Amino acid sequence: MALVVIVGPPGSGKTTIGRALAAALDAPFRDVDADIAAAAGKPIPDIFVDDGEEHFRALEREAVRRAVAEHDGVLALGGGAVLAEATRKLLADATVVHLRVDLGEAVKRTEIDKGRPLLQVNPRATLRRLMDERLPLYREVETFAIDTTGRDVDDLTAEIKARLGIRTSL
Ligand code: SKM
User: Which CATH class is domain 3-157?
Assistant: First the structure.
């Protein structure tokens, strides 16, 4: 069994790069945000509006716990999943790829996406705060980090695959 977990701030490319990495490894891809929306029967912005962020975080902790237990392959977490100490503990023994990105590029990559409830108001300032607050948490769980700023998906995928080769038999 081999699991590769992808973490990083909004706009770091977790879903895009995670999907490409899974294809390159010939392994299944799973996205915890998609799991949460499917289980709730509604999109994530609706969960935030109807039930609040705290409820979303509880759903997220459970979805991560389940996915880590079940999944073989590449698993992308939501940008805020590492806020939960229980989740960080769960990742202590996993292979975790931390995707980094500059603030300017994260703003560009996320600005047209209405599916990001935390970034609807003042996205640049919000992203800066989230990235500052969360960087130590991503670092705590990472096996290695890779900066995605200005790099294309194929190039990143090849580098991650090469670095994983040392650590996993996937
Ligand atoms: O999990 C979703 C949700 O919109 C919250 C979030 C965050 O806290 O950065 C990121 C997304 O992946």
Answer: alpha beta
Ligand 1: centre distance to CA 126 (Å): 12
Q: Which of 4, 9, 56, 2 is nearest to 33 (CA)?
A: 56
Q: For ligand 1, what atom is nearest to the CA of residue 10?
A: 9
pLDDT in tens, 57-116: 999 999 999 999 999 999 999 999 999 999 999 999 899 999 999 999 999 999 877 788
CB atoms within 10 A of CB 129: 12
Report the nearest-CA residue for atom 1 of ligand 1: 78
Atom of ligand 1 nearest to the CA of 60: 1
Which of 30, 118, 134, when mutated, tests ligand 1's pocket best, judged by the most ligand atoms within 8 Å of its CB?
118
Cα 116 to Cα 45: distance, rounded to the nearest angstrom: 7
ipTM over 0.95? The verdict is yes
